[in-house]
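Researcher: Here's the sequence for the chain we discussed earlier.
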Amino acid sequence: MLFGLMYLVGHNIFINTEYVFLSVVPVVTYSDLKVDKKTILKDNKGKSGVYRWINKVNGDVYIGSATDLTRILIDYFSSNFLFKELLNNNSIMYRALLKYGYSKFTLEILEFCDKRSVLEKEQYYLYLLNPNYNICKTTGSSIGRITKDHTRLKLRYVWLVRLFKSKGNGISFSKFILDIYESK
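Model: Thanks. This is the structure I predict for it:
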């Protein structure tokens, strides 16, 4: 285990006889998000990387990544976007930002990286830090995410419409659906 830790760049390693502590040293830290908003967007324009939100109240953490940090940060700083997304998705992070407000969070850029390696780097930090605001612990996957029943119905409807368009052969949509369910 120690050999694996020795290759970590940008990390502090503290070792005693019982535990190995690993702390990540961010590239940039923004503590006052209301004051720093314009600076945050300007500093990260056109850059790809991995970021971390830290709740100052309870210490909870969210890890994310983006090929365009400015674009995703604009979304995070828009309360209208957060409210709209909460209607469609069950984002713990969005809910926390709305509940506590930006003044109760610190934003850290953990690493700037190439666009092609963003997901790999995010997965590394998810594994390393095990953040509690992240619903999915695997990047690019919905494993661990709970899908609501009404979302499942919408997805099933979309699937049926696509199937109907490709294999409908001139019959009505309702007849097509009945034929599908009768054949099962």
